[in-house]
Amino acid sequence: MTDQWVALEPGADPAAHARMLRRAHETFTAVGTVPRPVRSVVAESWRRSARAGVGPDGTADVDLVDGDLGAYRAEHPLARVMPVFRELLGTFAADGEHLLAVCDAHGRLLWVEGHPTTRRQAQRMNFVPGARWAESAMGTNAPGTAVALNRPVQVFAAEHFIRRVQPWTCAAAPVHDPRTGRVLGAIDITGGNGLAHPHSLGFVQAVARAAESHLALLTPPERSCQSTLELTALGRDEALLLAVGRKVRLSRRHSEILVLLARHPEGLTGDELQCALYEDESVTPVTLRAELARLRRVLGPGLLESRPYRLTVPVECDVAVVERRLESGAVTSAVAAYTGPLLPTSQAPAVVRLRQRLADGLRTALITSRDPDLLADWAHAPWGEDDLDVWRALAAARPTAAVRARLTALESELTAPADWRRGGGRRGTGVGRDVTGAPWPEVT
Description:
By secondary structure, the protein is of the alpha+beta class.
């Protein structure tokens, strides 16, 4: 094979190649080895699928239905480019008896459209909106593998890991947020063996790029003028402010003030703001007024008023985005927007409470959802690596050897006596350091 991303070389016999793949798949599922004719991208995907505990006779779980699905789709960024997908791929899918499918960054199908007969056939394998087709759940498949690898991929016949999917051929390409580069999901075309052609792979890739260009054009024009401020405070010690077409990195104290004023468009009195910001009751109002004077110079004229202190223009804060998505039940979308704890080093009392409330709300939603992909994303993030409740939920949803081993180690670590933990796992040695890097006192 000259191009590992293309399923069939020009002139190859699809039927003969499909038979070879079925034999190779049987060999792999029986003894764990992959015969050489299988493309390396497929062989590696098969191995990942097996390590994730996917069985060749499995079926897709449907995670979102009815209102939950509708709420999640309405909040998802790819909803804004569905007209582009339908215009460029919709007619092709319908005329060719194919399906147009769109998934999110976790491989969950959001839309499946196309020829009615083909849709009914696809329903038999739960290739339907709301179903989880992540590679870690359904093995090798174009939309799931495209988001896993973050690149366009084509999957032909028995290259699919799940047997009931092997009559199908699909090609998918990831779609990225044009501003951040983050994977939003993937666009997929699914149908018969006729799609095993280099043109179908290039086609979906071109559609994905068109969607990204359209998303870039949809940036609200008011964000480049004085009518809106955009505040990014999650996962950052110093918030980033987009104002009047310029980006400003704020000091920690100014970050705290703007987060609080964004949540209180009606304004806060000096006393309210002082209680929200300072643990030390001895801090004088003069200190706060000096901070606000400096912030006013940073923002520019006319954006910060007093009596009460308030912003004169609307603020779109990433904290509010996560909260809205949680309230609407769009858990996956909320997790995607959560890039870390709110101002993680801040000790301002109101910020600490908001930070904890937001994290607790997300954790509760994740544990309740029992979605192994979402739980795994949280558990492997810096803020979730020691989250015992999430690791327990992940072990229940995806009891792989690696997850069980991490849970066992975490339970042992968190339930061990204090001197054992402080000694770095060696009881009685006194070896260990606190969070500042200073040695712990000797344990005797």
